[in-house]
Amino acid sequence: MKYWIxxxxxxxxxxxxxxxxxxxxxxxxxxxxxxxxxxxxxxILTVLEKENIKATFFCTGNNVKKYPELYKKIIxxxxxxxxxxxxxxxxxxxDKKKYLFDVKKGSELINSNLFRPPYGKINLRxxxxxxxxxxxxxxxxxxxxxxxxxxxxxVINNVVANSRNGSIVVLHDNENxxxxxxxxxxxxxxxxxxxxxxxRAIPFxxxx
Length: 208
Prior knowledge:
This protein is α/β, with parallel strands linked by helices and 208 residues long. The termini are far apart. The longest helix has 17 residues, at 178-194. It has helices at 9-14, 41-50, 61-66, 68-76, 96-107, 127-130, 152-162, 178-194, and strands at residues 28-34, 56-59, 80-83, 114-115, 135-136, 141-142, 168-172, 198-199.
């Protein structure tokens, strides 16, 4: 499986209208979780609460429908939310009309001006329409917690060794990857704290 742990600066420059990281003026990290809510979201929220951390959850509409109480718990716990589409479409494989419809359906359940394209593969023909409504949030650090060919130790190292001031880290609250996510989360947080980092959620604005 091929993917970047650190998003190359050239990619960040070419697609500079996307948000890849926050200001590097302070030692702050943004933990983000994609694909949920799911059966492991409660365990993730418990860890975050014990460590006094606010994060950002990019939710899919289908999972919000499946776990509405978990979605409410994310918000009531003080975390940020973002739209991750309705059905987790790959934007490189569908046309503009279908993609925008799927994002719009997601927005009916996920009331946020933040959008993260599933797989990080945005439908570029949709970009100018999307940016009228959304801040498009990407990441500069990929944990690899979806890659079941690697170990939890590698996931931890991917994040702790590579994070910098302002880094946006992508993790998942996807039950398919729980064997990597759950053992990795607390050591990631502990490792980043030992390096002097604090944590913040990406601010969002309700659309309605």
